[in-house]
Amino acid sequence: MPCALRPLSLACLRALASLAHAQPSGDDPASLGSVVVTASGNAVDIRDAPASISVLTAEELRVRPAHELAELLTGVEGVTLNRSANGSPTIQMRGFDQAYTLILIDGKRVNASTSMFRGGAAYDSGWVPLDDIERVEVVRGPMSSLYGADAIGGVINIITKPVSKTWKGSITADTVLHQDRDLADSQKLGFAVSGPLAGEALGIKLYGNYDHRSDSQAESSFNAGYPLFARILNRHAGGQLAWRPDARQRVTLDADVSSKTQGMYTMEREALALRHQGHWDRMTTELTLATDEIRNLKGMIDAQTNPNQSNTYTLNGKASFPVDWGNQFVTVGVDARKERLYDRANLAGWPGVPSTQGSPSTSVTQYALFVEDEIRLTERLAVTLGNRFDHHEHFGGNHSPRAYGVFHLDDAWTLKGGISRAFRTPTLVQNSPNWGSVSCGSATTGCYIIGSRDLQPETALSKEIGVQYRQGAHSASVTVFDTKLKNMIDIDSRTRDVTLAPSLDNFVGFLPDGRPIFSYQNIHSARTRGLEGSWAWQVTPTLDVKTSYTYLSAKNTSKAVHTPLLNRSRHNLNVAANWRVHPDWNLGATWRLQSAQPLNSANTVRKPGHGLLDLSAAWQFRRDTTLRAGILNVADRTLDRVSASDYSDEGRRLFLSLNSRF
């Protein structure tokens, strides 16, 4: 019987805590089983996790080909796929754009929004090659009490493969061939190798990835002269040194370099992290020092080349320990972060206005203290209470409390629910008054947008309640959620019309050349609410079916007449079946249904609803070699982009993948 269904002794608590810092062995990819670490900051059984959480395993990530992880998250309830203005795949969680979803790599924050304010968050889920991912933990709903800003929609923690105890590796080659020969095919090559250097005391892993697709010959009917699907070039390389000075301690040094090109925009990232993990009888500790540098080689505007560079430096630590009185388990931690942006073009001040000229760099510092306490009130009932105090250089102090309960009705049924407050501070770009950029469709005759020191942080209050069932061949869950967002940061209110411009609330004035100026502003409120459901059925020992469904209502509630938030489908359904026909053969099918999306606030322009069917097969023709093949978008259902906030769907295409392990 799992720890969740009997009183949690201190020994059990210590065992769970130690799992949080003991990486999987590498010899057994499933060694963590249903244990997750993101929802509470420590290892717990997924049924006990104080949050709505889903896990994607490495095997699930290999079933379908994709350029980036974002394309593979659509099977998780509450998660939908969209695309940024430059075509990069982005995700939405519970109706919030990817900027409201915190992306972690092994628990470390990544953030490209400062370097690429238009769709920058779209890059964050793609900094890790798929070949190096052990699993992905997706937490739906606010998690600011543990992780701070940007965790309003949820948290995605990309957990990479650990250093193996024995030498092993893999090579994977993929290609995707389009039926429409005007569309460019894609190729991908990746490798990973890992093993010991000095017994169990010192080990190393290395990995790399190359992913390429050329511009398509077909042009978008919306953007004349632009390819329907833009060029993609992703390159990754990195590694980890893992040192165990003794059985209680583990030290890791991670380094990686990445380059991601989408169309004419290229982002480069270099990251370095040093982490110490310790298990001291009744206490576990973790201390991480990390830094990353993201370089935007193109800048923000199609017609210009204005490179910029952002740097992030973080230091965080936490300690977890049981408390004898009251059967409690406590986690306390500190977090300090400094962000810096160097942009010699967009931080130089407004064009033609000498009084706004300033330094080409800006920075901000913040620190935080957080505590979380799991209290086991009865054998089946646990309550988690937490709070995080953040102090921001420009916005002072902010509290992010949460309370969450988990009640095991019996061995099969679990009731979960909670309430939490979350916040999101303006980015360096949004909050810098001397930052500015051309907009409104032209670099010379459009409008000009600027940052503002008058902005307030966005705050969200979220409630959810759900029930989970797991017994025998079936597992299922249903969760109802409601999130109210205040002070939403917005720049949609802008126009090149010089007559209309002064009537807009965020109008600032005119540039000397006559272009109107608009600043980022807070709008009063928005609200998302809905239902998430999932069902998994092990029909036979060789056949399983998984289904996820999301109902979403997402609206701008700032005015008397509520308007829909754009690019959000009310209904999303995903059904996947997997059949192991033979120990060496596997067949799979995935069907995704998405209802219509509003593309303007009046709801007069809509992206039609559509369904997509993918078929796949895998043949393990040698013990260590697997060939995968499949047809994506079997019905060849294509929808071209019809507005600036829309995106095109790819038609029927064939994929082939060869994976060899050694």
Automatic annotation (TrEMBL):
It is found in: Cell outer membrane. It is a multi-pass membrane protein. GO terms for cellular component: cell outer membrane. Residues 218-634 form the TonB-dependent receptor-like beta-barrel domain. Its main location: membrane. The keyword Membrane applies. InterPro entries: Beta-barrel_TonB, Beta-barrel_TonB_sf, Plug_dom, Plug_dom_sf, TonB-dep_rcpt-like. One of its GO terms (molecular function) is siderophore uptake transmembrane transporter activity. SUPFAM superfamilies: Porins. The keyword Ribonucleoprotein does not apply. Keywords: Cell outer membrane, Ion transport, Membrane, Receptor, Signal, TonB box, Transmembrane, Transmembrane beta strand, Transport. Residues 46-155 form the TonB-dependent receptor plug domain. Residues 1-22 form the signal peptide. It holds the Pfam family TonB_dep_Rec_b-barrel. GO terms for biological process: siderophore transmembrane transport. Belongs to the TonB-dependent receptor family. This is TonB-dependent receptor. It comes from Comamonas aquatica.
